[in-house]
Write a structure and sequence with these properties.
Helix content is 77%, strand content 1%. By secondary structure, it is mostly helical. It has a two-stranded antiparallel sheet with strand order 1-2.
């Protein structure tokens, strides 16, 4: 009996929606209770096996709750595993990994046993609270009548207009990509964090017009129904956006295309396939490792390719990306130092959407202050640890805040994904943006999805008035023709 059939039989056995919600949530709270017990009674070296069991069980439980349907919480579980659990899983297969020793960015810090225990526990619990939130969000009612008022009547006109904007703005986008990539080749990855010269070289107006390309692409992608045309526009945008990946901005590139992948599957009602999922993980792992070598200025040769293929590329990628575990652990270890500033950190995060360098100033971001603490010279050179929603939530309100934040992440993902169908095209683009940056939360600022939604919202507001003006102009010209 496969998972999908098991899910259907279980749902048929439960008489109504209340029974299902009670069953699923009760079982999850049972798992949470077991995690608390295991964390208390087991030796610390055995907790990594309990963590792996949590990951596998949460994936299995996802299929029980959602079947083979794609849901954003599934991809969130994936990024949570990669960024927060990657090092824990790798430590099962590599005895040289010591979870209590922080070598991240030359930190050279030993964590207390209690810190490591709490960190593993909170990451494990985050899976289950996110699943609870996602399930409850998917079962909540939608007032379809109200939401249908948001639908745009002239989608065909908008589709053509988005396509025109996409191609008109494309030269600006390609020029900006060329400037950024040239800057990367000349000065390296760290130069983006050491200076704003690359912004000056790209010119302000060019950057404004270039940002219309991804927005127009999304607008066309969501409206168009022809598979061949969608594939063509995706291929064009994928090719011109490759410099983003080659400049080693992996997170931005991968989360964008993962979110496109999610909505493509939704658009054509494709089911989750283990084969395609495995291929996707392998490709991302290999490409991610190659990009990391580019970031470290390692020359490509046969030895590098042999190294990647000889080592398990998935485990190597998990080991490399899983260092965000240490960010969460250090937030727990040094809570007394960073917690007094957490409200200030959170206040500055949405502002960073408009002023990109605002968070590099000491005292404005947890990631900046953490880097200064563990390696001040590295901070001056432009290095950074990144952040984590788990770390910032813990600084805000301890373990309870972490669990509640994970719950609301799952719930919000479900609500946005469920309401997506009934939203107008502008809201669809905003929903896409929020979901994309939620996927990166295990390695990013707690309010980064809000910050990016503000940034995109400003452009959408401008685009809304431009499109409105064009529509009124066309209508006015038609009226003149009729009168004539």
């Amino acid at each position: 009996m496969n998972i999908a059939n098991c899910s259907r039989e279980l749902e048929n056995g439960l008489e109504n929606k209340k029974d299902k919600i009670l069953f699923f949530t009760s079982f999850i709270f049972f798992i949470i209770a077991l995690n608390l017990i295991f964390d208390y009674i087991l030796p610390i070296e055995d907790l990594k096996y309990i963590f792996l069991l949590n990951v596998l069980l949460s994936v299995f439980y996802y299929f029980i709750m959602f079947g083979k349907s794609w849901h954003p919480v599934f991809l969130f579980i994936g990024t949570l595993t990669l960024f927060q659990g990657g090092l824990i899983i790798s430590s099962i297969f590599d005895n040289n990994i010591d979870l209590s020793y922080v070598s991240l960015m030359g930190a050279n810090i030993f964590l207390g046993e209690n810190t490591v225990r709490i960190t593993i526990l909170l990451i494990s619990l985050s899976y289950w609270f996110a699943l609870i939130g996602a399930y409850l969000g998917s079962k909540s009612k939608i007032k379809i009548k109200n939401l249908k008022k948001l639908r745009t009547k002239d989608y065909n006109f908008l589709k053509q207009l988005f396509l025109v904007i996409f191609f008109i703005a494309m030269p600006f986008y390609m020029y900006k990509q060329f400037v950024y990539f040239s800057y990367f080749l000349q000065f390296g990855y760290l130069a983006f964090y050491q200076s704003t010269k690359f912004l000056e070289e790209a010119v302000f107006l060019v950057r404004i017009f270039s940002f219309l390309v991804p927005i127009a692409f999304l607008g066309y992608f969501f409206i168009e129904k022809n598979k061949q045309l969608i594939f063509l526009i995706c291929l064009i945008y994928f090719i011109i956006s490759l410099p983003t990946l080659l400049c080693t901005f992996r997170g931005q590139f991968f989360t964008f295309w993962l979110t496109i992948f999610l909505f493509y599957k939704r658009k054509f009602n494709n089911k989750l396939s283990f084969k395609s999922l495995f291929i996707m993980v392998v490709v991302i792992s290999i490409v991610g490792l190659l990009i990391s070598f580019m970031r470290e200025n390692v020359s490509f040769d046969v030895d590098i390719i042999y190294f990647i293929l000889n080592k398990n590329p998935i485990l190597e990628f998990f080991k490399q990306q899983g260092v965000s575990f240490y960010v969460t652990a250090m937030a727990i270890e040094f809570k007394h130092e960073f917690a007094p500033n957490i409200l200030k950190y959170l206040m500055w995060e949405p502002i960073s959407a408009i002023f990109s360098t605002a968070l590099s100033v000491p005292g404005r971001a947890f990631a900046t202050d953490l880097m200064i603490k563990i390696n001040y010279d590295g901070y001056l050179m432009g290095y950074g640890t990144g952040s984590s929603y788990l770390a910032e939530a813990y600084l805000l309100g301890g373990s309870v805040a972490v669990c509640l934040t994970s719950f609301f992440i799952g719930y919000i993902l479900s609500k946005l994904y469920k309401n997506f169908e009934y939203a107008n095209i502008y809201i669809k683009i905003l929903i896409f943006t929020v979901i994309q940056y939620v996927f990166f939360l295990p390695r990013d600022l707690l309010l980064m999805p809000l910050a990016q939604a503000i940034k995109v919202g400003v452009y959408l507001l401008l685009l809304f008035f431009i499109i409105g003006f064009i529509k009124q102009t066309i209508l006015y010209s038609k009226k003149l023709e009729v009168k004539a």
